[in-house]
Amino acid sequence: MMKWKTAISTHKDGELYVRGHALAGLINKHSFTEMIFLLLAKRMPNEKEVKLLDAVLVSCAEHGVEAPSAFSARVSVSTGNSLHAALAAGILATGEWHGGALEKAAEYLQSEKTPSQIVRDVRESGGRLAGLGHKIYKDKDPRAELLFAKAKELGFSGNYVLRMHELQNELEKQSGKKLPINIDGAGAALISELGFDWRLGKAIFVLGRLPGMIAHAHEEMVNEKPYRRFSEEDVEYVGPEPREEFL
């Protein structure tokens, strides 16, 4: 007989307990952010930790219809899918290059390797160092700057924030390029400061981005006609020249 083992929740005397806390008490006294922290970090946060996690989640919430998670949700709902299916499409559009960099950067920060080793290994593999550089923000990512300022204000400019800046400096030393710490790098440093396992990185990004996805999918559902597709002017054909063939 297969048994499930869990430390997340249990029922006792008709009451649900989450990490040892009665759900009734959580409903009466705690916020959604506190509930997220309790579930993922396995403990109840203090006030400053809640404010910092709030800032990280808010920073992820929206970044325009151009973002894959936004337009994928809109395309899905435009073809007649329900809202929850459209959100699934948006979530599936997150990956290594959209949302995943936060997780990869947190993995770097939480590893036992030195910044020099991390940068060297990434460069030798031909990869890109997650958490650094941005297509739009060439000098500095204002969102990252705000997150670091919030962390400093709340007393969380610790080892992981320092390591993220060390990675930036090490990349410049080894490659000659000074790239800005982006929103993913800042988010990675802050979730690490809060004690979250790096493997929760993509999930935390999705938690923050979901309200934006919902807004986009709902707007598409209410305001637009079905269905979304590319215009021929948006497609560049690069195959062989069409041939006339007769049967």
Low-confidence stretches: none
What summary fits the major beta sheet? Answer: 3 strands, antiparallel
**CATH T-level fold name of the largest domain:** Cytochrome p450-Terp, domain 2
- CATH homologous superfamily classification of the largest domain: Cytochrome P450-Terp, domain 2
Structural class: mainly alpha
Mean pLDDT: 94
Helix content: 55-70%
- Strands, total number: 3
Task: Give the count of helical stretches.
Answer: 11
Keywords:
mainly alpha, 3 strands, Cytochrome p450-Terp, domain 2, 11 helices
Question: How would you portray this structure in words?
Answer:
55% of the residues lie in helices and 4% in strands. It contains eleven helices and three strands. It has a three-stranded antiparallel β-sheet with strand order 1-2-3.
List the helices and strands and how they pair.
Elements: E1 9-12, E2 15-18, E3 21-22, H1 23-29, H2 32-41, H3 47-60, H4 68-78, H5 83-92, H6 100-110, H7 115-124, H8 142-154, H9 159-175, H10 183-193, H11 201-223
Short précis:
By secondary structure, the protein is mainly alpha-helical.
